[in-house]
Write a structure and sequence with these properties.
9 helices, mainly alpha, flat, single chain, Leucine-rich Repeat Variant
Length: about 130
């Protein structure tokens, strides 16, 4: 069996091109929220697109931003105040969320979000 690093070496990801970024921008502007979710989940999404998607009217789109490990810290901080428990819950389990945002989430009104924050901290300290 080969390691993940060996697999990545054998099958490198394609180069990120201007046309790929243009396609992500098109996806982010689509009327269908499921299509916008694909842009919100992409690791190559530009910062300005992440910012726009973090303000999307659809909870599912914002949840995809919240769980994306490549989303900018300032965008993740903003989502700590999202009106949706689901979005804040996904944010709570993202290991790349800044500590100040995690502090905000640890005092969240939602017991579920608070439990997810505790679960992640216990997992990280194990």
């Amino acid at each position: 069996m080969i390691t993940a690093e060996e697999a990545a070496e054998l099958h490198p990801a394609p180069e990120v091109t201007e046309s790929k970024i243009a396609r992500i921008r098109l996806l982010a502007a689509d009327t269908n929220p499921k299509i916008r979710e694909s842009a919100a989940s992409n690791h190559n999404t530009p910062v300005d697109v992440f910012e726009a998607l973090a303000n999307d009217p659809d909870d599912g789109v914002r949840a995809c931003v919240a769980r994306n490990e490549h989303a900018p810290c300032d965008v993740l901080r903003m989502l700590a105040h999202d009106p949706s428990d689901t979005v804040r819950g996904f944010l709570a389990i993202n290991f790349y969320v800044p500590e100040d945002a995690m502090s905000t989430l640890s005092a969240d009104d939602s017991a579920t979000v608070q439990r997810l924050v505790r679960w992640k901290r216990e997992l990280a300290s194990a």
